[in-house]
């Protein structure tokens, strides 16, 4: 029996200022496509249509429309930044197509034309601050890339800090992709915050960590166990270009880490080892894009069609067992319930997981149920 070919768009920047993240996501998506196409029990195969906007937000909408109108794609796996997602959203709504968005974002959005598989603030920033505020102090310094992710995460962090009785020392922004960060380091040394929240993206994040390590070497107050850099979007890809001391001692939150101790993740890594070798470690961008394609394929198989309306109904009607844990998508908000984890980076550029939510956390994209309380520091040991 011949199999139907279904085109899907992979819309990630594999060149430009956050290219490394895009390449990871494409690798994960292509690995899932290979598994789908190798499954003879399915009545369809997926044909990837790759497009590279090269980090230019203005190109995303054009490439999304090309994929839908000229290549027959009803589903787009992609976009990394919120800027690019918002450029694509009107296109998806116009053509009733579906965008599968698998990166952490700032919330305050819900569309029937997007399946949100990335964490929103109550699944990343809230658990991160629940951990760091009582242990390190309530005087953060915030550094951000100058676009909607940085603006909104900085705003929410300020509100959460102040509601907990703390004070944000400063909020500073740099252009997306900028690597000139010496002025930030100088101000951090002068103001001596309790920790630094980094909302920087791509090469900006790497440049900041490299410069911050220089400060750690000069001033013991800024050692990793004393004044850490914490983030909601830091992954192994950002650490790859750094030296061992520059990589170590940063706290991040994510919905996937390579050493996640679950049967699904062990099986996933065993399958990936056959494709990429046993030395590769897997990142949140890789795993999340893989999950997006896998969930789309399972929904097509269940629905018997790739029609977006049918897939919308199907993807919100079942539970998916995935490498990032069990995933259910809310039928009202189209956001996934996810398990947040916290991890500490080491000199090899790996993240060592030390805390996980016991069950998936329902997405609260508008923070309607966020706690507003004063935090009392518990008698817990600071992570070194």
Automatic annotation (TrEMBL):
InterPro entries xref list: Peripla_BP_I
Listed name of the protein: Branched-chain amino acid transport system substrate-binding protein
Coiled-coil ranges from the UniProt annotation: none
